[in-house]
Known about the structure:
The chain is α/β, with parallel strands linked by helices. The protein contains 25 helices and 18 strands. Helix 14 (about 320-340) links the parallel strand 9 (about 310) and strand 10. The site of zinc ion has 4 residues, from loops.
Amino acid sequence: MIANLWTEAEALAMQQAAGGDPRARELALRVLTSRLIGRDPDLVMHGGGNTSLKSTATDVFGEEVEVLHIKGSGWDLEVIEAAGLPAVRLAPLMRLRALPALSDEAMVNVQRLNLLDPSAPNPSVETLLHAWIPHRYVDHTHATAFLVLANLPEVADATRELFGDRLTLVPYVMPGFALAKAAADAFECNPEAEGLLLVNHGHFAWGPDAKASYDRIIDHTNLVESWLADRRPAPLRPAAALPAAESAPVLAGLRGALASVLPEGAALPVLDLRAGAGERAFVARPDLEDLATRGVATPDHVIRTKGWPLVLRAGAQTPEGMRAAVAAFAADYRRYFDSHAPLAAGPRTMLSPMPGLVWLEGAGIVGVGATAAAARIAADIGGQSARVRADGEAVGGFHPIGPADLFDMEYWSLEQAKLGKGKPPALQGRVVLVTGGAGAIGLATARAFAAQGATLFLVDRPGEALDAALAALGRDHGGHGCDITGPGAAAAAVAACVARFGGLDILVSNAGAAMTGDVATLPEQVLRDSFELNFFAHFAFAQAAAATFRTQSGARGVRGAEPGQILFNVSKQAVNPGKGFAAYGLPKATTFFLLRQLALELGGEGVRVNGINADRIRSGLLTPGMIAARSSARGVDEGTYMAGNLLHAEVEARHVADAFVMLARAERTTGHVMTVDGGNIEAALR
Ligand SMILES: [Zn+2]
């Protein structure tokens, strides 16, 4: 059931914050209930739904004009502000009702033209529908329960049984001028109604004040929820969730298979597997193939997920099986485009034929996207839409819009106009794993890659530092806490990365620590421990990464995007021994050799292997205490010590981070070590 989140305390606080102007106070309540709706993913998700308020404003002449505050496109209800509900002059919107038809472009234009603030965002494409419903507050959702009801074959009977005359049915029309007209006509046939049910689309309700309209949204939705609960069969018992070690190879293979239908050189997609009990029970259904062909629960989902998912039964989850299934999906998608594009009003550009959702039997529902955020949104919608399908089938059937209507929505002229605008960042879609990711150099490196659009996965010891680093990066990145020298730790960390994002493109093997002592008296165990961290961990991560690269690139070979890269944080110590640093330098010199050996072995597969030799960076290896001791031992101040190089300039973690990114982008460079030390002739490589 949906909770009613209205509290008088929050309403009062919002009004007080708005000041003394009654119009601002009324708008504050509009903002509040919009947010309350946005807080529940079973009401709206990811920019879906919209809300409005009819009010007045004072124009530049001091005259009072009637306006409609309507959600601006690009705003999400969950976090909306007053600026996200721009005011549009109501009178011209009302006049439009007399027109027989209006193109989407002309409608967007006239709505923009009548904004009181010309810098405001575009008013929603459902603006006219809101304008023509003569109630003060109007709310529109794509609630999960209503999507079940709206896609039933007997939607009219079920709606009447539940609501009597309180909800008016509007047959499916694509959002825009024609839908607004159909909704206004339907409203006028039953002006006492409390709301609308838009067939195959969603729910509207209204009221004289913010709370009344919001209460109706909740009450109506819960009426449908309880009706469904009475009819919902006992849930299937899902299989146990797959451990990362088992799901990772399937996901990495799937990622490569998906990429096989992308243009040459394109980045591989990011995946987001949802493996909750509901998703796992859903992908165990015997009727997945049939359900997959039916369409989407509400039209705008097609833009995020495509019109149908790729179904992968357990038997098809081999590299060859997945490649064949993705190729068949792409062929179907081209046929769908070729058969509907000629009927469109103008030329249409075909979108990527790659699936947006995968139903992976035994594992769950996978969202697919060019970025981690796009994959997350597709997975969220995929989860909701699975619940809608399961409930719909239990109470009469899931019968959404068909392919022709799907095409009109997916290839809407307003969406096509967005294509090709803005170049994606250079490393968009690349999954980058950084060991020691919570340390000074690791986190700086993670930030530098994230700034280029990459998706980061940090590996470090569990604890506050890792938690803080992950919080700093934000929700579309991930991490894994472990001691990287433990047995199997590297393979488990790489598997966790693949389970989270579907694969791995760049390993930054960075973690290290300096152990000290002279060789002549060095306890053997100190050297062995140092080898565990400063050599064997690099070796184990490189092995695990190379295995993942091979699983991923099986479908593309070397003709597509780079199959993977490995970057090592080596050390000046690998080539230029420092007194007392034998236990650090010996394994680092071995890691340097590892880098060159891997470059030699993996080059034929297109995998590049490079590294950085950095020196004298403030980090866990060079603490404030060590800096103080060394500078005083040399009789110089700390600044002079830190800038003790040819450039007389301190080298910071961000300089190392930038060098890692440069190597990652240097497409024809492998087996190379870049020096980031401000200049040190003794440590120069050649
Ligand atoms: Zn809608």
